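Known limitations

Files may contain more than one protein. Parsers should not assume a single record per file. Below, a two-record file is shown to illustrate correct handling: read the sequence, read the token line, then continue until end of file.
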Amino acid sequence: MKKINLIEPSRYNGYGGLYSRKVYSQQNSRHMGRHFLNYAQLADILNLPNCATQETEFNTGIPLCDLIKKKIIGVIFADSGVFFTAAHRATVTAFLTELEAKTTAARGSRVYPLWDIRNYDDQTGEPTKGGVGNLTTSQVVTADGIPAFRFGYNGGEIQHQILANIESGQYDMFLVDEGYTVYGTRSGDNLVGFSTEQIYVNPSKFQVTDRVNQYSFDVTLASMIEYKQRSGFVVTNSTITEKVGLINITMSEFSLVSNVVKLYMIAAGGTNLEPIHGAALDGLTWTAKNTSTGAAFTVTSVATDATNDVMGVTLDTTAWAALTSGDQVTIYGPTPAAMAAADIAPYEFVPYTVTKP
């Protein structure tokens, strides 16, 4: 009998060569035959390249590579409907560039990264089981458990209060593990965040010995199908943690003389931006609206006041004169994207409303 060497396929061969292949002789095994050859073909299909190995070129994981999940280090919330196309996922650079652009995009098209996750509890319930009939004791799964998670993070009082606002919106969620892999769900050829049923921000707690959940929030996903059958992922690198959410800049009135209002610009945490970025901010576009009508209100000029560390905003003289006492104008600072382009990041202005005396 002619000796034929066959390679035993292994679905683990793509995992960095952890498991070696074995060579069998057809002469030494009479039971391989066609079944072994069919198995070999199937195993070749399942033998996916591992995205996490250095030898493997970057790709989307949809469905050309495989990996093993690692510990969670971050969460990226996204406005409902935000997605990453195939072009966005073509390379690591393309994906990270698009992710960064989305951190400063307009509301409704933005992502909100949150890093420094210090605790992650998978609270997904057990599947529901039921009998298959009244003449048997067999039990089958009738419904999957609902995917649910608790996250503890290195927060602070101001940050946690801001995070609480997420409860009132509609947000999707991406997960990021310590291999810098971003997990979401497939929607056609796009990668989107897992849709959420509820995001609940827990009250902050005073310190105790175990304080991993001193600042924490719970997320319940809306679809097991998204999480189980349609999960997708993108492998990135450590620079993803440099893509951060925006810090609010709160404006408050220093003085109002005629149509010129001078404003403090204090970022969350207490930093006054005028001494640092005042010169750059007065070169960007500021806008205003009539608060009652929503009509545009012209901002004539913006100038720094280095003596008082405030920004002076001059409103159109004629339009201001036409207002009556008690009328209001809402002032909007430059957009986050415009500020980021001027190397003023990561910030976003909270609109300020000035009332005519």
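...continuing to the second record:
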Amino acid sequence: MALLPRLRWRKPRSCEILQFSGTQVTALQLLQNEFSVRHMPLVTEEVNVIVLLHSLCRLKLSRWAYYKSFCALSRCKVVVVWHDTNIHAFALKRTLEIPVMCIQNGIRHDLGPASGKGFFSALKSLPPSINPSVDDYWVFSEASRRLLESVISANFHIHGSYRGNEFASRRSSLHHSEGKRKIGFIASFPNASEIPGGHILKNSQPFLRRESKEISYEDWFRFDGMVCKAMARIAEELSLDCAIISKRPGEDTSEHRYFSQIIETASIPVIGHEKGDGYELANSFDFLVATDSTLGYEMLGLGSKVAFVSGRLNSLGVNSREMSFGWPLNIPDHGPFWISTTDEDEIVDFLRAFVAIPDSSWKSTTSEVIPRVMVVDPGNSALRKCIAEYVGRRA
């Protein structure tokens, strides 16, 4: 991030929905067929001089007064937070006179950058005068609601994944291979340009922090390597095609660099995708394997066969169930499509049994658990209806 934000001199354009944070409209573009959507960058990203002067004329000089002026000049009807790990979003409601709505866009844990705090720790450290809140919080599931309501006041709506719901409305059917079946490991690595030295293997530089514990790049991703090796063993044993699903397109991704340096996974193809296209790619596999991937949960809700292998924190010497499947629900450590372990042979046995689950019994096997960890509302009908009510009521 630049030390100084860039300046903009043009008055904010009128809109119905104002996206909080970002210098362009991102995922909320999917709402533009029904509503007018603009963006309100953070003051650290971009400062609109017209807005700043508007705020100063009212003898107010603070980020909150600036955001209030921005909303007034844009004449927006509702503020929608897409980047829901920005803790400033949860202080907006005390300043604005219009609704503030938040959309969950990823599985949440209390992990932070090496130099900072995790999401929940940061919220808990806010001054007592700030009660983290929004009017509406659209979350993935019962599990998400239980986790987030412990630190945020809101009217919680369980509606699933915003992007996943949009994909559900246009997907024709689940994939079933006519020939050799396919199994894919969902990887979620940082951009290579963001990694000191560009490589993860043997990289002892700090990557994340959990409370006072620093975790290096190599230590964090070692678990992915072990799970992928187990998948490769099962693929060979059961004559399955296998691949690694990368978070980004290109042949020189951090996932490709990492897995190509491990003997057991070096020959596995790494397939990338453009942002937002991961659903199409993941849908082309008969079986998916994930550790703590948001895409894994989304595909599970969409009906794909997904195996979850937890145990990353335990592999790091952290005695916690925080990143186990379905946290914080009271779900056993082992089930038909999930397991918590740090042993490669146990993962192989688990994946063998997972692949053997017949299509005819998949729904009955999973029907009680899946709706508790990810629901689906094709086309985001409930969310769109709520926005329409806000827009109409305040027109």
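Parsers that stop after the first record will miss the second one. For reference, the second record is described as follows. The chain has a mean pLDDT of 92.
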